[in-house]
Design goal:
Length: 306
């Protein structure tokens, strides 16, 4: 709602960047932590379903907003307000339905002892590395498509295609993760996303870019949805899952803050996407290797389910 009132750049930074970021974190962290309290054996599958709402919104809201902006009587302000009212109704329902299962934790706000757990530290370091490159194709797939001859309208739909496949990836790969191990699956999804990012700049036709967007969305979505189950797996008490996830996401968010500007500088400096794709792919592959090492600290067997 505050964004609809903005007329200057610094106002957008305050409303959409600072206030919006704080609000999203306060919504997202509890929402993805609570399923871990209810489920153990199928925790990754439950997390995939719970986080599946994010890509659904990523598919629908850009299309809705784009259509609303086409009506001259609405303008920017009321177009954004309509989307805000839709979010208000949906989030009110979610807030009513979300209920804790584990007893509420009492005591200190943070749990510093969590950082003495090697697996917890390593999965967070792996996520920090992966997030440096995870959002690069998501931010630049539209402009990359336009550069290679795609129409502006279809280029705007590339992100919707990516998000659509992310919905299926989170659920399907979450189900598989409960079978072969969440850390194993996280390592595979990071590596797959990294390989796809390396191949990104070799696509040039509308079809190949669209196929890339679909495959990248399928695997990259699971990198996000598998993070809470991996954290919950190394948490001693279900009451502490929310705190463990919150502390981890706070550190990983710094990487998200730095990753896109770094890649933006690479794109601007070299006037192409090759260096950004190489950097992002390398960061994701590093995350995959660290995740595999974290899995080994949990079970010191080469092909263990963990």
């Amino acid at each position: 709602m505050a964004t609809s009132l903005c007329t200057k750049y610094n106002q957008f930074i305050l409303a959409q960047g600072i206030l919006g970021g704080m609000a999203i974190s306060m919504i997202f962290a509890p929402a993805i932590s609570i399923p871990g309290q209810y489920f153990s054996r199928r925790r990754a599958f439950a997390s995939g379903i719970a986080s599946g709402g994010a890509p659904v919104g990523g598919v629908l809201f850009p299309i809705v907003l784009n259509r609303l902006l086409g009506y001259p009587n609405l303008g920017f302000g009321w177009s954004v307000r309509v989307v805000g009212f839709i979010m208000l109704v949906l989030l009110t329902g979610a807030s009513i339905l979300l209920t804790e299962f584990a007893p509420r934790r009492k005591g200190q706000f943070f749990i510093p002892s969590a950082f003495k757990n090697p697996a917890y530290v390593m999965i967070n370091v792996a996520s920090i590395m992966a997030v440096l490159g995870l959002f690069t194709p998501i931010f630049y797939i539209g402009s990359y498509s336009v550069q290679h001859g795609t129409s502006l309208q279809f280029a705007s739909y590339q992100i919707s295609i990516l998000n659509c496949m992310s919905f299926f990836g989170r659920i399907i790969l979450g189900y598989v993760a409960d079978k072969i191990g969440r850390y194993n699956m996280m390592s595979i999804t990071m590596a797959s996303t990294g390989i796809l990012t390396f191949c990104w700049t070799s696509t040039s036709s509308v079809v190949s870019i669209t196929v890339f967007a679909a495959l990248f969305g399928f695997f990259s979505g699971a990198v996000t949805s598998l993070y809470p189950p991996c954290i919950a797996q190394v948490t001693q008490s279900t009451s502490d899952i929310g705190t463990y996830v919150g502390m981890g996401m706070a550190t990983v968010s710094l990487s998200a803050l730095a990753g896109t500007p770094i890649n933006g500088v690479l794109v601007h400096t070299h006037h192409n996407y090759n260096q950004a794709a190489a950097f992002s792919g390398a960061a994701l592959m590093a995350g995959a290797c660290i995740t595999a090492a974290a899995r080994y600290t949990i079970k010191r067997e080469l092909f263990a389910v963990a």
